[in-house]
Amino acid sequence: MTENSLDTAGRQAATDQAGAARTATSGPARAGTASSTLERGPHDGGRPPRPTLGRRAVALADSLWRPALVLAVFFAAWWFVAAREYVPNYLVPTPGQVWETMTSQWSELARHTLVTLYETVLGFVLAAALGLITAVAIAYSRTLDKALYPIVLFAQVIPKIAIAPLLVVWFGLGLTPKIILAVLIAFFPVVISGVAGLRSTDPELLDLAATMGAGPWRTFRKIRFPNALPHLMAGLKVAVTLAVVGAVVGEFVGASEGLGYVLLLANGNLDAPLLFADLILMSAIGIVLFVLVEIAEALLIPWHASRRAGVSLTTS
Amino acid sequence: MTAAKAATGTAIGMSGLTVRFTTRRSRTTALDDVSLDIEPGEFVTIVGPSGCGKSTLLKIVAGLVRPTSGEVSLLERPVRGPQKEIGFVFQKAALLEWRGARANILLQAEMRGMDRTQAARRADELIEMTGLTGFEKALPHELSGGMQQRVALCRALLHSPPVLLMDEPFGALDALTREQMNAELHRIWRETGTTVVLVTHSIAEAVFLGTRVVVMSPRPGRIIRTFPVELPAHRDYAQVMSDPRFDRLATDLRGLLGSAAANH
């Protein structure tokens, strides 16, 4: 029990039973939502009340204006340096030139972006699936833990980028080596976070599950897996950004399409605007995928998000 | 609605239970030759200092820990492996933090594959009985410690177990909430007729709730004495506290526990 709940319950005199106790433990920040739950009457499934759309928009704007400001300052500084030619134009183009390149060559760039996106997403999904299976194996079996964990660790220590040429030799110039590289890079954080999550189950809950006569599958599905989700989602967020790196590095080594290929091409031609446009598109892939995983997280584990929002915590 | 009472004989039988833990450096005896028979419908409270193996004793009955030697039986059947005929309440509520109160209670039904409509009806009864009405959807972190423990209690009672094992269930609650929970547990025990074994540090709790109080010694845990509690079956908290019989028993227990600790 946290001090908080003890303390409030004490102040509350004996009436732990009434709604007052709940409002008090929830703290002033939550008081409004707590009482609204009560007013809504019959409950349907165990979700906390969701904030309204308007409030969420306000919250979003509140969280976005600072990074937006930083970005605006950055662009202004870039534009200033480039337009004044403090740095030669063939090294740092102006934002306008980059925009120009991006719009005029859009159809080509879009095609290459889709290729890289495809490699990244496929690599990420495979890494997530394989990583989760490995994590389950490691968390459930002491033998597999001892057998697999050192190998996973060892595999992580090998610089994946150094494997890229070998993959090209083995699998050719197609998409396969890029996807494999993305998988190899994104795999590790999934395994580590998955193992950490699965191991974080309260041992008393597992004891309880045993007295409920449930088999391992039911215990996994109802207790261990949902319990592991917050850890796992954190690992997936890291993994998805790393998958982009894997795909691009794969393209560096040998490819005829994709943003990595375009980057090398632009580099060879000293085409700075194309280089910058390419970089922006690569980053955009990473950001979009990251946000998608964040959305998936919010949908899968709303209870966790509401906890992070600073609601008072008690143990368990 | 009342728990299925074991027809005849003992609800829990323990004979010669001994548990030794071997660590790298030492061998500890947690429990030493503990024998105790508990009749159906009894409310046995076990008091003793920290580390006397009280919790281990409950886990042995539940089949979660295997004794080094000795025999346990639950409802006349020897205990081998985890037992399903029990409800278990821990000091921590141990709730699933992603589920609302009602869904947490229904976990018991889902894990056992119980009939859904029947389980839902039973859950609603228990929610009403424990005063959780209005909090069905609340997530654990939105509930106070006392409310969380009520949810854990409902979960343990959902399948109407003939035996309820409680390991310091109210140990983490403040004194006032604890008294209130004691009174409620007493009422629930009378209503359901379940056999209860409750481990506690609190002498007042042990005497108020128990039909029998078992006193254990510090490590290695042995049963020093058992006291029948000569108080009416239907107890009111305030009345019991001012009852001279309560005082006498509490004083005896305090003396015994004090001396047990001093002699060690």
UniProtKB/TrEMBL annotation, chain B:
> A Pfam family for this UniProt protein?
ABC_tran
**Which PROSITE patterns does the UniProt entry name for this protein?**
ABC_TRANSPORTER_1 (PS00211), ABC_TRANSPORTER_2 (PS50893)
The protein's UniProt keywords, in alphabetical order, are: ATP-binding, Nucleotide-binding, Transport
Which domain of life, per UniProt? Bacteria
Query: For this protein, what is any one GO molecular function term?
Result: ATP hydrolysis activity
CDD domains recorded for this chain? ABC_NrtD_SsuB_transporters
Q: Which residues form the ABC transporter domain?
A: 14-253
Would you tell me the protein name for this molecule?
Answer: ABC transporter ATP-binding protein
Q: Which organism is it from?
A: Micromonospora inaquosa
